[in-house]
Design brief:
Elements: E1 7-12, H1 24-27, E2 34-42, E3 48-50, E4 56-58, E5 76-83, H2 84-93, E6 100-109, E7 121-129, H3 134-138
């Protein structure tokens, strides 16, 4: 019989990026496979904020008085191809679909990789905060985590 490997393209912008606190989850082969494709940016601009614990939140754009004085930004991160077991592990980490919601979007590659070229627009998924508050939108918007934010504090060390 034939085994078909289903993979998913996932854009990461926070603690899952290389060099960040949760990246080890993507390199642990017991979790499945995560293959780095390229640095990338989302094809649309969004608010990206960091809370007091250093947790990054990607927010949907709002047309409201909350965001009148602030412009969404280009969001930089990394594009990976992950298998279904890895996606399940990452969904659990991100508490999808209750806390974060994995959502279809597109990103633009910032370098060439295998059969993909710099500038290609790629369908992918990204984790948005499911129910942002007014307080989230009041935080400074950034483009590239961890710039301008507090250092990440693991869940078991938060007060």
């Amino acid at each position: 019989f034939i085994i078909i490997m289903v993979t998913h393209k996932l854009f990461v912008y926070g603690t899952l990026k290389r060099g960040e606190y949760n990246h080890y989850r993507m390199t642990n082969e017991e979790n499945g496979s995560a293959v780095f494709i390229s640095e990338a940016k989302l094809s649309e601009k969004y608010p990206l904020v960091v809370d007091q614990y250093g947790i990054p939140f990607l927010l949907h754009n709002l047309e409201s008085e909350i965001t009148l004085d602030k412009q969404p930004k280009d969001i930089y991160g990394e594009l990976y191809e992950v298998d279904s077991p890895m996606l399940k592990v990452l969904d659990a980490l991100e508490e999808h679909p209750t806390w974060y919601l994995r959502t279809d979007t597109h990103c633009i590659l910032l370098s060439s990789s295998k059969d993909l070229k710099e500038g290609d627009k790629i369908a992918c998924q990204v984790y948005f905060l499911r129910v942002p508050t007014k307080e989230h939108y009041s935080l400074p918007y950034i483009s590239n985590y961890p710039e301008g934010g507090n250092p990440y504090i693991p869940k078991d060390q938060r007060q």
